[in-house]
Amino acid sequence: MNITEILDTRSILPHLKAGNKSQVLKELARSAIAQIPPEISISERTIYDILIERERLGTTGLGNGIAIPHGKLPKLKKLICLFARLETPIDFEAIDDQPVDLVFLLLAPEGAGADHLKALALISRLLRDSATCEKLRSATSADALFAIILDKSVTVAKAS
Fold it and tell me: What is the CATH number of the domain that holds 155?
């Protein structure tokens, strides 16, 4: 799997403003609607509820300022991914108790077990490098963020 299969510059939010975890998830749900084909009737509230339900199982705040909220949607036909760089780091109940400022949202079809896991693994490998995370934190445009993600994704794919 290549990152370009699930992410492009239209799905990058370079300056997401939110004061808490709930607001981040609401904003991501709102933004995800634009990525879902209009013939699929899914509301922002449905996406938000799925994300909150997943958070109740355990935080998706991985540590080092990174979170990957994710969930499965019944009517979805393909993976949807968004990346947001938060303007201000927020408490995401991360496993290291550090605030989060880099967030990947991943939404998958209900039956997408392997693809969902491959996408999560790809994103995790991409963000494992602290230098890449610092570059993401300093970039200010969707194009610059996408270029960093794409460059690192190619490096990760070659190493795998």
Answer: 3.40.930.10
Q: Rounded distance, CA 110 to CA 112, Å?
A: 6
Q: Give the torsion through C-alpha atoms of 108, 109, 110, 111, to 10 deg.
A: -110
**What is the number of structural domains in the chain?**
1
pLDDT of residue 157: 44
Query: Is 15 noted as a catalytic residue in this protein?
Result: no
User: How far apart are the C-alpha atoms of 149 and 21, rounded to whole Å?
Assistant: 23
pLDDT band at 135; cut points 50, 70, 90 = very high
DSSP assignment string, 37-62: -TTS---HHHHHHHHHHHHHHS--EE
Distance in angstroms (rounded) separating the CA atoms of residues 90 and 47: 21
pLDDT tens for 95-110 read 999 999 999 999 999 8
Instruction: Name the residue range of residue 67's domain.
Output: 3-159
**Section 2-19 average pLDDT:** 92
User: What is the distance between the alpha carbons of residues 154 and 2, in angstroms, rounded to a whole number?
Assistant: 8
- Is it the case that residue 27 has pLDDT exceeding 90? yes
Name the token pair of 100: 């989060």
Determine the angle formed by the axes of helices 113-127 and 130-138, rounding to 10 degrees. Answer: 80
Catalytic residue, chosen from 21, 26, 70, 116, is 70
